[in-house]
Structures are given as C-alpha cells and as structure tokens.
Automatic annotation (TrEMBL):
Protein name: TetR/AcrR family transcriptional regulator
Keywords associated with the record: DNA-binding
PANTHER family according to UniProt: HTH-TYPE TRANSCRIPTIONAL DUAL REGULATOR CECR, HTH-TYPE TRANSCRIPTIONAL REGULATOR RUTR
SUPFAM superfamilies the record matches: Homeodomain-like
Record-annotated DNA-binding residue ranges: 30-49
UniProt domain HTH tetR-type: residue ranges: 7-67
Protein origin, superkingdom: Bacteria
Amino acid sequence: MVRMSAEERRESVIRAAVTEFARTGYKGTSTEAIARRVGVSQPYLFRLFPTKEAIFLAAARRCLEETREIFAKAIEGAPPRGAAQAMAAAYDHLISEDPEKLQMQMQIYVAVASAEAAGDHEFGSAIRKAWLELWDGAHLALGGDAKETTRFLAKGTLINTLMSLGFPPDHRVWDGF
C-alpha cells in the first residue's frame, strides 16, 4: 500500500470537507465526519488544519477557485462576444455534474452571513478575497464592463437560488432565461 504524503492527505481533507460542508453546512458538520470520510483520526486532521474554521476556509477557497478556473477555461476558445455564454454553459455543466459545488457555494454564503451577524468579520474576509478573485476573473473575461459583470453574476446567483430551492426546469420561474 502506498502512503499518502501530508500534502496529498491535505488535498483529501479539502475534498471531503467540500462534501461534508455542502451537505450539512459549517455549523452542522463535525470534524469527526470529515476525518471519518478521509480515513484519518481527528488528531491527524488537526495536524493538517489547526481548526474547523481553517478546514472550511480551505474548502470554500477551493470551491470558488474551481469556479474561477472553469470560467477561465471556458473563454479560451470562445469568440470575443461569447464569453458570457461560454462561462454560463461551463458553470451549468459544473453544477449539473457536481451538485456539491452549488451546495457548497450556498453554504459559504450562509456561513459568512452567520459569522458576520455574530460579530466575526475576519471569517468572511478570507472568503470575500476568494470571491473577489472570481469576480475579477469574470470581469476581465467580459471586457472589464462592470454592468455586464454584475448582470452575469446576478443571473448566476438567481440560478443558484432557484436550483437550490429545487424549482424544476419547466417551472415558470425559468421563463426569463
């Protein structure tokens, strides 16, 4: 049996954390569940990440980075005016193929809002930084047009909300798309 390096194990923890946090949120996920999913002890988990918050932040950053990377790949072969459509199609494929990505994004927003409401502004700061990188990537892809970037991300947020609420594809709320 080949032993994993600490970096490979850390990567396994991040993947497991995305799954667990996507399903049960920050408050509802135990580090025990993440450790069990990876097949490590909690003490080992805490050697890789000092706190549950650090695990969540790594998972949140990963989720947002992957979305940004999906957007970047999508526009590589797209015509200059087709960036929004290419990114939208790539994102649709991402959340259709891996619904945990959508669930994790929604959990990220809930966790930040909850922390902010409790007076913890530092928690959201790291996530806002990662989200801003996502915004900047879309903004550049859309030619630096702030209104177009806002429209694109606002529409994406509405899609996330409707999908999270479970509206079927043939429901009237989708008519505007």
